[in-house]
Amino acid sequence: MRTMHGRGWAAWVLAATVAGCSPADDTPAGDVGRDGDGTGDAIGDGGEGETSVPRGVRLHGTVWGPAPPGGAPLFPVAGALVVAYVAPPPEIPDQVYCEACVELDPGVPHVLSAADGTFQLAVPPGGHYWLAVQKGQFRRVAEYDAPATEGDVELEMWRTTLPSRTDRAIGDTIPNIAVLYGDYDHIEDLFAKVGIGEDDGAYGYDYDQADPPFDLYDNGDQEHHGADKWELLGSIEALRRYHIVFFNCSYNAIFRFMRTTEMQDRIRQYVAEGGRIYVSDYAMPVVEKTWPEFLWFMDPLHGGCNEADADPPSCNHGPPFDAESVAADEGLHAWLDAQGLLADGFRTRENWDTIGGVFEGVIGTDPDTGLEVRAVPKVWVEGPWDYDADDLTGVGIDPAEWDATTVHPFTVSFQYGCGRVLFTTYHTVGSTTGGRHPGLYEQELTLFYLIMEIGVCQDEILF
């Protein structure tokens, strides 16, 4: 793996020693080095692909995502860092920050979980450790006393289950999350299903709960929930309180606030400083007005569109379509496959926007050379524009002549500065009425995979 020169808080040197290991270990409180856009290979004893049996106490387990109260976790976590520190790691910053990937010293026992979340970590016998499990800002740290003799140990599930709310006193951290409420895509319903907030007893988020683990801001047209959105969007200082901001799909005209260069500059600055934004469907002006060079939005049912025709752009359109989709990213594909979710196909529901192409754009400035760095967005999920025959004939198109096989981007992301932007054409909850159904659709599970992926460290720090 590639070693990045640490900037800011990520590189930390232990003052203590690991028994039988090097006397000083370069220990990040965040993530180790990654390959590509957030994926990584297992490292250290017991890593993915290891065939020999390492010496020491071999800790076995599965890293799980957050779980609802009293319930079982709903998904494993791939590429999570499992590490045994000999001193408490520093806390994750309580606001947006820029984190470069670092490479842990081989003397620090650590490994990344496999596609199915499993891992094996070997530690010296008899040691006292702070065992950490982490993906992005989701982290659980708990003290652990290793047995005095070598052998295999199955860790308790609670140790390897990522938390559903922040409680720093016990070592639990989740991202500082802001959700911009929208009429049509209710990401908060999915959070409630995994215990990030309380559910209302009907597979939805309880808007009246007393102590929610994230902040909700109102951007609705038909319904209204949360605080005034300008308490979030009105200043860079307010945005900086959060590691990630979710822009839910809502009525298109609601996003006319993205017309101003002041708002565009503020969003751009937040991401450049290390913020992450997740944007779905009709919230597309947040991406299109701020970074117009990366995505080409179009309206194939109505002969295309000019993104400058309206302000905000009106290239989002209906009717929606469902499509047999492809997990274009190798890591996402392996994760879905490990859960048996690809056997019957990966179908995305409620695709409303259509991306005609992705293009190279400026993602930042190289701090060493001062030159602009350009890149093409990463495609995570893709599929065909598979409109129903009635929808095609309704606009005068012969279904027999419609191209329903060529794949197009559905979910994409790109780095900007020290942060990341993710956009999806489909409703994350697979419905225009929220995520009120038992369990999680494949695209809803994909949400959790992606918010953890875009939350990890940057292999290359840009400004």
Q: Helical percent range?
A: 10-25%
SSE ordering: EEEEEEEEEHEEHHEHEHEEHEEEEEHEEH
The total strand number stands at 22
Strand order, largest beta sheet: 11-10-9-12-13-22-21-20-15-16
Low-confidence stretches: 1-29, 32-50
CATH architecture of the largest domain: 3-Layer(aba) Sandwich
Report Rg.
Answer: 22 Å
SS-derived structural category: alpha/beta
Mean pLDDT: 85
Instruction: Characterize the biggest β-sheet.
Output: 10 strands, mixed
Cα(first) to Cα(last) distance is: 23 Å
**The CATH class of the largest domain:** Alpha Beta
CATH topology of the largest domain: Rossmann fold
Which percent range describes the beta-strand content? 15-25%
What overall form do the CA principal axes indicate? Answer: globular
What is the helix tally?
A: 8
Q: What is the number of independent domains? A: 2
In short:
This protein is an alpha/beta fold and 463 residues long. The protein has helices spanning 187-193, 230-233, 236-239, 261-272, 285-288, 330-338, 389-393, 442-453, and strands spanning 57-62, 81-85, 110-112, 118-123, 128-135, 138-145, 151-154, 172-173, 177-181, 215-218, 227-228, 244-247, 276-280, 295-297, 321-327, 346-351, 355-358, 361-365, 372-375, 378-384, 407-416, 419-424.
